[in-house]
């Protein structure tokens, strides 16, 4: 959004140079780049949190929340939108304090500050449907990506015994949980945006029913490319489960979410990211 500020001039310049993508690339290629970029940045974030926890034990009891993005490297032009890789800004509030801060507040080294700022400010110049798909899965699925990122961050910060020199084993566990849960959220978002042709045989649960069920399974009606003609529209239901008159064309967003799920499934914590963060981190 245009009212977001840059983290600083250097990170904005680097992000503007590196993240503008070529026009006319396929939807599949753009979705793959975007979701892999998201998952790699989540991995990097959890590694930084592990090292920060080792240097600042007080972070172990900090309140963790994920808010809408604070920073943005650039604004898109010509009908596209700047889509953030990470689903939101992680904010930490120390016990006994009222003010929360982004992670860069807790380090002094300028290089580490810039690296942390860039994690949250990086955006990709993409068609509008990508931002719509992202916004939906960030906020409206249960749980959404914002909450999943906060949960992974809490798990890393709560783990004791991290040295601050090496990324703790908890990062692998938290990252695996992020990957598995985000795939379920993508699948749930697909379901929410899908109008199955025969609603009597395959009713879409109304908005008060959790998208990810209590036993960890996802509601049915996952996207099937061979049934694409049935995905041309989506029906919104109100809190009473009644179909409203408003109908949108969600077929592109459904395809994007399906690509996100496909390219996230079985994604592993990249060893090079762990090594890079360990080698460059300075408190």
What is the mean predicted local confidence, pLDDT? 81
Q: Which structural class best describes the helix and strand composition?
A: mainly alpha
The SSE string, one letter per element, is HHEEEEHEHHHEEHH
Q: Strand portion, in percent?
A: 5-15%
Unreliable stretches covering 5 or more consecutive residues: 12-18, 195-210, 227-238, 244-249
Shape: globular
Query: Can you list the strand order of the major beta sheet?
Result: 1-3-4
Helix content: 40-55%
DSSP strand tally:
7
Strand count, sense and barrel status of the largest sheet are: 3 strands, antiparallel
Report the C-alpha radius of gyration, rounded.
19 Å
The number of helical runs is 8
Q: Could you tell me how far the N terminus lies from the C terminus, measured between alpha carbons in angstroms?
A: 31 Å
């Amino acid at each position: 959004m245009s009212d977001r500020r840059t983290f600083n001039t250097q990170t904005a310049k680097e992000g503007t140079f590196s993240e503008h993508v070529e026009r006319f690339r396929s939807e599949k290629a753009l979705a793959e780049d975007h979701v892999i970029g998201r998952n790699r940045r989540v991995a990097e974030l959890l590694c930084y949190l592990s090292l920060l926890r080792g240097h600042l034990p007080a972070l172990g009891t900090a309140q963790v929340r994920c808010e809408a993005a604070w920073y943005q490297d650039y604004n898109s032009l010509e009908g596209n939108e700047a889509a953030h890789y990470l689903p939101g800004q992680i904010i930490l509030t120390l016990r006994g304090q009222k003010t929360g801060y982004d992670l860069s507040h807790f380090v002094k080294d300028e290089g580490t500050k810039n690296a942390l700022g860039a994690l949250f400010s990086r955006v990709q110049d993409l068609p509008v449907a990508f931002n719509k798909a992202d916004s939906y899965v960030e906020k409206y699925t249960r749980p959404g990506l914002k909450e999943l990122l906060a949960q992974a961050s809490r798990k890393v910060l709560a783990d004791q015994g991290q040295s601050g020199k090496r990324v703790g084993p908890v990062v692998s566990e938290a990252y695996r949980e992020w990957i598995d849960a985000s795939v379920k959220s993508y699948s749930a978002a697909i379901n929410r945006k899908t109008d199955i042709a025969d609603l009597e045989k395959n009713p879409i649960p109304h908005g008060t029913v959790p998208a990810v069920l209590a036993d960890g399974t996802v509601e049915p009606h996952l996207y099937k490319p061979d049934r694409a003609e049935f995905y041309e529209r989506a029906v919104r239901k109100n809190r009473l489960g009644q179909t409203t008159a408003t109908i949108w064309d969600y077929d592109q967003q459904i395809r994007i979410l399906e690509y996100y799920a496909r390219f996230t499934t079985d994604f592993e914590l990249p060893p090079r990211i762990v090594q890079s963060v360990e080698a460059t981190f300075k408190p």
